[in-house]
Amino acid sequence: MKLLLTPLLASSNSMQSNLVRFPIAEVSGNSEQTLKTASSKYDCAEQQFQYLLATEDLDNKLDAQVSIVSEFEATLRSAISETYEKGYGEDDAHLFLQRILYGINRLKLFWYDDLRHYSNERSLYLSKVRQQIEAAWQNWELAQIDVAALQLLDVKDALIKRAAEDLDPPLSSESRYIREEMSIEGYCHLLAIASFDGLVEGSRLSRILGGAANEVQCTLIRVLLEEYGNGRLSRKHSTFFKAMMAEFSMNTVPEGYFDLVPWQVLASANHNFLVTERKRYFLRYAGGLTYFEVAGPAAYRNYLTAAQRLQLSEAAMGYWELHIREDERHGRWMLDDVGLPLAEQYPSDAWELVLGYDQEKLMGDRAAAAVMRSIRRAEHSASLIK
Ligand SMILES: [Fe+2]
Ligand SMILES: [Fe+2]
């Protein structure tokens, strides 16, 4: 259904973009009362978690926080059971679980903030909470994939065929909407959500690079070097993302729009943390990154087309242009110099490359659909305000 949107002003510039409003209130499904109760229950449990996270030497202070710990754990258990075990969890339960998981995972990266924020980095309690969520969540994710069928595939052939299809897929209705209709408000909303990853791009790749030297490792390092602008901040991909946001006077602090990030996007990030932190999943990570780099240019071409139609400045679209060029190369490197050689080196586990590829695609598509729903709601709200 086509949305009724206020026509755009003749041209866009940073003054016009100041009209963009954040954050957009988001509600979905159910009766208002149920939503209110559920969201306040999860809000409360998230605050309890944040309190525990900020407690210096948490593992040795748990006894002094018995009521907070037990209330938080009761909400956690019921959210896990409803969402992953009984399978009828609402979006707010998914969001609560992914935000808690992300709150723990993000300690693997350094944010150049107060050093005390990292005092519980190795907390056994936090690690138990992460394990509890991850175990149930990952079973739920895996149940959506026919793993037995993947194990029968000719892996090299499967990767080559998938990459060829995903390099230049037919335009979906969502792609067409982005290219032909998405408004400036929608574009900024996209930047706000995408900044969650765009401003720290490549960070998780850095976690899997150490170890024995070979061609695979060197290719991954080459990808990382390009993502990091060969060590020059001005050429770092995240700098290009920041420049796009600056064109609209948006907040360029990492996680600045965290509250807009849908659970599906958080799930992709958390999955990425899992497969980079566990070397047992190295093949899954390599398969996933192959998809990510191969499929990138097609998505970025949609965003670039939208930006050109909206007559945005060069800086407001530079990141997409850069990635259309570089990710085509990264995709080829990942397939030819990482995926295929790993399939030869690990013949009996090679199917895990395809599992990683397919999961990245499934989760990426799910996240993209959620972002589109969020963009349409933001555009609708903006049209009402106008
Ligand atoms: Fe990049
Ligand atoms: Fe890339």
Q: Which parts are unreliable, with pLDDT below 50 for 5 consecutive residues or more?
A: 1-36
- From the alpha carbons, calculate the radius of gyration and give it in angstroms: 21 Å
Sketch the major β-sheet: none
Total DSSP helices: 15
Tell me the CATH topology of the largest domain.
Heme Oxygenase, Chain A
Order of helices and strands: HHHHHHHHHHHHHHH
CATH H level of the largest domain: which superfamily?
Heme oxygenase-like
> Could you name the CATH class of the largest domain?
Mainly Alpha
Q: Name the hetero compounds present.
A: fe (ii) ion
How helix-rich are the residues, as a percent range?
55-70%
Shape: globular
Report the CATH architecture of the largest domain: Up-down Bundle
Q: Which structural category fits the helices and strands?
A: mainly alpha
- How much of the residues is beta strand, in percent? under 5%
Domain module count: 2
Mean pLDDT: 91
How far is the first residue's CA from the last residue's CA? Answer: 21 Å
Describe the overall structure.
This protein is an all-alpha fold and 386 residues long. The protein has two domains: 32-142, no CATH class; 147-385, Heme Oxygenase, Chain A (Up-down Bundle). It is 65% helix and 0% strand. It contains 15 helices and no strands. It has helices spanning 14-17, 32-53, 66-85, 91-105, 124-142, 147-150, 155-167, 173-180, 184-198, 215-227, 237-246, 263-277, 282-309, 318-345, 351-385. α10 (215-227) packs antiparallel against α14 and α13 (282-309) packs parallel to α15 (351-385). The longest helix is centred in the last third of the chain and has 35 residues, at 351-385. The chain is globular and about 55 Å long. The structure holds fe (ii) ion (2 copies). InterPro entries: Haem_Oase-like_multi-hlx. This is Iron-containing redox enzyme family protein. It comes from Plectonema radiosum NIES-515.
